[in-house]
Amino acid sequence: MRPRPDLRALAALLAVAGFWYAGVALLTGGADPGLRAQELRAARAMAEAIAAVARAAPAPDPATDPNRTGLVGLPFTGITTTLGSLPAKRTGAQPDAAALMARLMARAGVQPGSRVAIESSGSFPGFAIATLVAARSLGAEAVPVVSIGASQFGANRPEFTLPDMLEVLARGGLIQRGPLAVSPGGGSDRGGDMDPGALEPALARAAAHGAEILRPADLPGDVARKRALLDSRGRPAVFVSVGGNWAAAGPGESLLGRTGLLLPGQFRPEGTGLIQSYLRDRVPVIRILDVQDLCVRTGLPFDPVPWPAEGSSSLYRGKLPPRPLIALGPLLAILAAWAVKRR
Questions:
Q1: Residue 28: its pLDDT value, please?
Q2: Which residues on neighbouring strands pair with residue 260, listed in sequence order?
Q3: Is there a single domain that holds both residue 103 and residue 165?
Q4: pTM for this predicted structure
Q5: I need a labelling partner for 304 at 20 to 30 A (CA). Which of 17, 121, 232, 267 fits?
């Protein structure tokens, strides 16, 4: 007995749809096993770093820092520079943040022995630490320059700033080194609108730990000095900008909210900041600023409480195929079923 036309059409529809999505899964599936191992290694190292910071930090507020990381600050202190998103700050304070940074660095061309230039404000201490941890896990040399000022819920405790956190991790051997230099941050990167009584002791501690203290006179001088420090170990394979320090993109928002991996040639880098300077010199840039957009595009969990089990989050499920590619599958399946039915 021959199958009915309707059944043959249904079988054709299911077969075409199945083969189509199997092919899409193969083409856009998970990461290379070697890269996956590097990402997991970075995530484990980040978990150790978070635990070390939590032990050294003032007691966290479980209402704002439910994962008790020590990486979430206060609503306002004397070194708070701008408004900030609490969920975004908590997003950087998770192990998978380092896995993402390892992935982005690998895509930028970072290999063992590469140099990674890092400029970070205190606004996203989790992502700053994740960058340093990920560089170490890839066998790259990190060259960090940071600032004290932080937006709300960042590293804005005057007694425990981002340089203090990095010093704890460097002493514990969890990152390669503390910052080469520290600037005030805030207005004009000179501590504008910050409380000198809170800022100056933090800068003094950074100087005592061996960091050069930068007090820029103007933006060109700030960018030039930081660029010289970041390039002092040799040409970097990538420049990582975390947060919104004045020198990162310059005044205004000439980068149109771009975040994630920025490759030379993708767009014309107008402006006078470090990001534009490196892109003009054909150095890839990783920019961490719009955290929610970054999570949507990469699969990094946004504000997870508690953290996902190791290697289980959407970050590890591979990139999503383009929407037109997804939509084409049902269309082809319907056309196949229609052709079979007509025959």
A1: 47
A2: 287
A3: yes
A4: 0.84
A5: 121
